[in-house]
Amino acid sequence: MTTTSSPPTNPTASATAAPATRDRRGPFEAAMRGRGALWGIAGFWLASRAAMLWMLVNDFYSSNVVRVEITATYHNWYNVLVTWTMPHNDIMWQYPPAAAAIFLSPDLLPFLTYFQAFVALTVLCDAAILGGLMRAARRSDGSMGGAVLWLISLPMLMGTPFARYDVQVTLLAVFSLLFLRFRPRLGGVVAGIGAMVKVWPLLALLGTPRGKSTRDAVIAAALSCVALLAVFAALFRDTLGFLGNQGDRGVQVESLGGSALMAARLFDIWPGKINFQYGAFEYVGPYVSSIARASLGLTVIGFLLLLLWRIRANRWSTATPFDAALCAIMLFTVTSRVISPQYMIWLLGLSAVCLTSRHTTQRPIAWLMVVATALTTLIFPVWYGSDILTTSPLGTFLLCARNGILLYATVWSGVRLWKATVRPKHELAGTAQGADTL
Questions:
Q1: Distance of alpha carbon 268 from alpha carbon 188, whole angstroms
Q2: Which residues are CB-contacts of 189 (< 8 A; sequence separation ≥ 6)?
Q3: In 378-424, where does DSSP find H-type helix?
Q4: What's the DSSP call for residue 85?
Q5: For a Cys staple, 338 with which of 82, 95, 162, 252, CB 3.0–4.6 Å?
Q6: Alpha helix (H) residue ranges in 248-342
Q7: What are the strands, taking DSSP E only, across 225-285?
Q8: b or e along 257-269 (b: 16 or more beta carbons within 10 Å of the residue's beta carbon)?
Q9: Can you state the angle between helices 343-354 and 363-377, rounded to 10 degrees?
Q10: What is the pLDDT of residues 225-255, one digit of tens each?
Q11: For 368, what's the count of Cα atoms within 13 Å in the CB-facing half-sphere?
C-alpha cells in the first residue's frame, strides 16, 4: 500500500484520518486559544526563562559546573574554530562538522561576551520552538498540549538547557517534523542540517508515509548533508576528526548500563570505580567493556526493530511521523552508553511535537518524559556530586528510577506505535470491503 503526506484517498488511510473531521475542540483547547491564555503563556515564558537565567548565572545548585560548558569547553573550541581548524585533538569534540556553526554563532552578537551571546541565542531558539508548537496547534487536528508541555517542562532542568547547544539541535528536529507534513522537501533539508550538527535529527524522517513524500524528504536530506559536508570540508581542516573520539566512549555513570553498575557497586558486588574521561564521568573496571558492547548490540537490535516497523506499517495518521520520531530517539537514547542530562531536551521537544496532534499515540509517553525530566534534575545538578558520584542509596535509587522510567516508556512507546500502525491484512481487507459497501 502506498500513501503520501497529503490527505489519504485509500479506504484504510481514510479510516485513520476521518476522526479529524469529527473532532470537536474541548474546553481546554478553546481556553488555550483565548487572548488571555496567550498573554498567560507569554508571561509564564518570560518569568520561567528569567528564573532559568538567574539559576545559570548564580551559584544555584552547582550552576558553576553547568556554566563551564560554555565558558571553558565551547569557548576553547571557538578559539580553535576561528583558525579554520576543527578541534579534533580535544577528545571532547565528538560532533559532526556543522556543529562548528553553533559554537561560532556568538559572533552574531559582537557587543556581548561569548557566554552572554551563546545564552541569548539559545533563549531565542527556545522561544522559536514554543512559537512553532503554538502555530502547529492551529491546524484542524492540532492541540496546544505540545506548547504547554514545552513551556512548563524545560524549566525543570533549571539552567542546564541554556548552557548546552541541544536546544538549537532540538529546534532543527522540531521544525523538520512540523515541515514534513506539508513541505516534505523542506523538512528533509532541515533534518539533513540537523544531522550535520548532531546526527540524531535525521531520525525525524523515519515515520514519513511511504511514497513520494518520503522520497522527496530523504533525497533533500541527503543533498543537504552532502552540501554541508562539502562546505565545511572546504572551509575547515580535519573535518571528520570527530569520528575517532566518539568511538572511544565508555559507559557513562548516568546511562542504563551505568545504573546497573551503580546498583552493583552499592551492594559491594562490583569492585569498579569512576573516572573522568572523554568529557564525562565513566565507570572503569570488570565487565565495563562487556556492558558497552551490549549497549551497542541493543542499539543495533533497536534499529532493526525500527526497520521492521517501517516495513510492516500499513496505516498512517497525521501524527505517525511525530510518534515514530519520538520512539526512535527514545530507543537510541536508552540503549546509548551515554545519557547526559541535556538528552532530556531532545525527548521533551519531540514529546511536545507529538502533543501538537490530537491523533498521537504517545500522549502518556510524553508526560512520562516530564516525570523523567524532574528526576534528571535531581540527579544533575542537584545531587550529582553528593549522591550520584558517591554511589549513595539515594543517588542509586534516583538514577535507577529515572532510567527505569525511560526504559518502560521506550517499550510502551514502541508497542503503542506498532498497534496503531500495523494492522493484519484481513483487517485491512475488511475495512476496504466495508468502504465499498458504503
A1: 50
A2: 220, 221, 223, 224
A3: 393-421
A4: B
A5: 252
A6: 256-266, 288-312, 320-334
A7: 251-252, 273-277, 280-284
A8: bbbbbbbbbbeee
A9: 160
A10: 999 999 999 999 877 766 665 556 789 999 9
A11: 20
Cα-based distances in Å from 72 to 68, 75, 79, 156? 5, 5, 10, 24
Name the nearest CA neighbour of 163 among 20, 28, 61: 61
Q: Count other Cβ atoms within 10 Å, centred on residue 15.
A: 18
Q: Give buried/exposed letters for 185-217 (b at 16+ CB in 10 A, else e).
A: bbbbbbbbbbbbbbebbbbbbbbbbbbebbebb
What grid cell was written down for 120?
541569548
Q: pTM value?
A: 0.89
Cα–Cα distance, 180 to 81 (Å, whole number): 33
Round to the nearest angstrom and report the end-to-end CA distance of the chain: 21
CB 241 within 8 A of CB 86: yes
Q: Model confidence over 49-88: pLDDT tens digits?
A: 999 999 999 988 878 889 999 999 999 999 999 999 999 8
